[in-house]
């Protein structure tokens, strides 16, 4: 099945223009073993979460205080570009990522109810994580503090564990994780090459930040011609500008796979701010940018492997921070224990050009290793 794009014109022009909380809240729930793809035409399969209606997702997202801008669908993934970040729905797994003062965890009861409606009793694995907030005093319940978030999560997952990774007076990262007693049902089917990279960047260079201030459609027409705009007449203005900004800023190149078959859905907010989702088979990448000088932030997350990108993890990280001109960044890398990991990866993390490594921490989780590292430009 070829990926398809559905644009929600009604929700496509909203944006908060003042100081903005870029760092996202990220929730990931795994419900069961992956359901097979490449089904024969007449075969009826349990699509799991992918069978959930758009109305149900809209209802859930309303609890988190965000809306859908557009959706890219493929056989393996439904990728939702949101007014505040992104959501990725697989048959057995959901990833919800929201920024600003959204109340992501307030959507958890509805999310679990929706999962139950398609046959999932409870998650086999849960991750909730976020970087330290820029404006913690502006957050709404249940996000007014990490302690409050943990208390709320433990109402649903009482055996979950809380971690604060990195120095609390500098860039650091919070994680809540839980495993069901029968997690082994899922562990046997894990992809041995599974890896998820997050690069969380602050203090962007002014030159790079300006790329994510919305140009006018007249500027796009002048640069690319009327045909460029005309061929995208099924898109909203924000999506037309998003496609142009993705090209000009290097975002499209950053998200391109080695076979050039990835599909990108990008949106440029007016007057400022940028979001994009990319899907490739059962893989994704997502980028979100808050370019204001006093609160600049950009994030890049992907589970596309180094083999599919055609470059090493270290090269992807270097390309990412160069694209956004970050003066500070931290990263997290979850890798399956069976992955063909880059040799001497920890040593390579010392040698990014123009950056000093401040922290390097490794956690050993069931089935996965977690690496956290933070860097400052020198």
Tell me what the structure shows.
This protein is an alpha+beta fold. It has a single domain (4-377), classed as S-adenosylmethionine decarboxylase (4-Layer Sandwich). The protein has 12 helices and 17 strands. The protein has helices at residues 54-64, 108-117, 146-156, 184-187, 206-209, 217-224, 226-230, 237-249, 251-255, 306-309, 313-324, 345-348; strands spanning 4-7, 25-30, 68-73, 78-82, 85-89, 93-98, 125-131, 161-165, 173-179, 195-204, 263-268, 274-280, 283-290, 297-302, 326-336, 355-365, 368-377. Helix 1 packs antiparallel against helix 2. It is globular and about 60 Å long. GO terms for molecular function: adenosylmethionine decarboxylase activity. The record marks 84-85 as: Cleavage (non-hydrolytic). The active site is at 21, 24, 85 (schiff-base intermediate with substrate), 99 (proton donor), 275 (proton acceptor), 288 (proton acceptor).
Secondary structure layout:
Elements: E1 4-7, E2 25-30, H1 54-64, E3 68-73, E4 78-82, E5 85-89, E6 93-98, H2 108-117, E7 125-131, H3 146-156, E8 161-165, E9 173-179, H4 184-187, E10 195-204, H5 206-209, H6 217-224, H7 226-230, H8 237-249, H9 251-255, E11 263-268, E12 274-280, E13 283-290, E14 297-302, H10 306-309, H11 313-324, E15 326-336, H12 345-348, E16 355-365, E17 368-377
Antiparallel strand pairs: 1-3, 2-6, 2-7, 3-4, 4-5, 5-6, 7-9, 8-9, 10-14, 10-15, 11-12, 12-13, 13-14, 15-17, 16-17
Keywords: Autocatalytic cleavage, Decarboxylase, Lyase, Polyamine biosynthesis, Pyruvate, S-adenosyl-L-methionine, Schiff base, Spermidine biosynthesis, Zymogen
Family: Belongs to the eukaryotic AdoMetDC family.
Modified residues (Pyruvic acid (Ser)): 85
